[in-house]
Amino acid sequence: MNLQGIVAVSGKPGLWRALAQNKTGYVLESLDAQKTKLVANLSTAKLAALTEITIFGIEDDIRLTDVFEQMKAAANVPDAKADGKKMRAFFYEVAPDHDEEKVYASDMKKILTWFHILKDLPAFNEADPTQAPAPEAAPAEVEEPVAEVVATEPEPAPAPKAKAKKATKKAE
Question: What range defines the domain where residue 81 resides?
Fold first, then answer.
């Protein structure tokens, strides 16, 4: 999935696509049907790129993009307005190592809302250009025969030339 340039803005609902950058911040466009434009000032607004967001895990943090991949593969993704127990059960399917005490119902609602916004975008189904291709997709390397190298004695380096000193005559 290619989520480059998609951000969440604190205090603003939904997701935004970064269109351009100016001296004071970013020009953003909402991903909803209205396509609202917004200039987010870097000194007042907090932007979070979706590719950088993680979820609290028991051992290690879980990347949001990994959770979205699991959600794409899931058969039945609940609505963001679903019961808290149903959302928690779903999160145990897609992110079994999430920390139950630190991941709140509001976090799960936000992630589900974001997933429902993103799932219809063409970029959501594209490959991420920053990720390396899967090992199965990599072409098999062909081993070429190595040419035999014959060792020879290196030629001696030429001796450095002595610098000629210029004689200067002082004017009397």
Answer: 6-125
